[in-house]
C-alpha cells in the first residue's frame, strides 16, 4: 500500500468552492483502479490549505494508471483552477 | 477528530536508527490522553523523510496535554537527536 500525500493550497477566499468541486471531482480518483481510500482534510493553522491523502495498492496505480487516464484530466478540470499553486505531491510507504 | 501532521527529516544515513527509536518512543504518544492512532510512513522520493500522522480527539489533546507532559519529553529524547531539523507540524480537520 502506498500513500499519496498532496498539500493543496487553494486561492484564499475560494475554499467553499474548492470543497464543493472536490466533492464532485473526487470520484475520479476513488473510482480509479487500485485506489483504496481518498481523504481530504483542511488545515487549522492555514485555512486555505488542504491535505489530500490517497491510499493506492501500488505506486504505479497513481503515477501511471491514474495520471495517464481521462479520470485525471477530469479531476484536474474540476478543481485545478482553484489551486493557488501546483500541489506538492509525494508518496509514502510503511517503513520496511 | 484532529489529525496532527508532522514531516520529519532525519539525518541522512540514520534512518534505521530513527525507525528503531520511533518503535520504542512512540508509545509515549499513543498512550497519551485523547490519542486514537499513530502512523509513521517513509517517503519514497526522499528516503530520509518521514510522515507522522497522529489522530487526536481534540486539538488540545496534542497542543496542551501532550506537549506539557513528561511523555512529550521522553518522546523527544528518544528521537530528537536524529532529526535533521525541527519538524514542521500542522493540524488538519474534516472540512466543515
Task: Explain this structure.
Two copies of one chain form a homodimer. Chain A starts with a strand and ends with a strand. Chain A has 96 residues and is α+β, with helices and mostly antiparallel strands. Chain A has helices spanning 15-25, 27-30, 59-66, 70-79, and strands spanning 2-9, 35-43, 49-56, 88-93. Chain A has a single domain, classed as 2-Layer Sandwich (Alpha-Beta Plaits), CATH 3.30.70. Chain A is globular. The interface between A and B is medium-sized, with 22 and 22 residues.
Summary tags:
homodimer, 96 residues, alpha+beta, Alpha-Beta Plaits, 4-stranded antiparallel beta sheet, 4 helices, 4 strands, 34% helix, globular
Short note summarizing the structure:
Two copies of one chain form a homodimer. Chain A has helices at 15-25, 27-30, 59-66, 70-79; strands spanning 2-9, 35-43, 49-56, 88-93.
Amino acid at each position: 500500500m502506498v500513500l499519496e500525500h498532496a498539500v493543496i493550497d487553494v486561492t484564499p477566499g475560494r475554499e467553499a468552492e474548492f470543497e464543493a468541486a472536490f466533492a464532485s471531482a473526487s470520484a475520479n480518483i476513488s473510482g480509479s483502479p487500485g485506489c483504496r481510500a481518498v481523504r481530504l482534510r483542511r488545515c487549522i493553522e492555514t485555512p486555505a490549505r488542504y491535505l489530500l491523502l490517497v491510499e493506492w495498492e501500488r505506486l504505479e496505480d497513481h503515477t501511471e494508471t491514474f495520471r495517464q487516464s481521462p479520470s485525471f484530466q477530469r479531476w484536474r478540470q474540476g478543481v485545478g483552477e482553484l489551486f493557488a499553486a501546483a500541489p506538492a505531491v509525494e508518496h509514502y510507504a510503511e517503513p520496511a
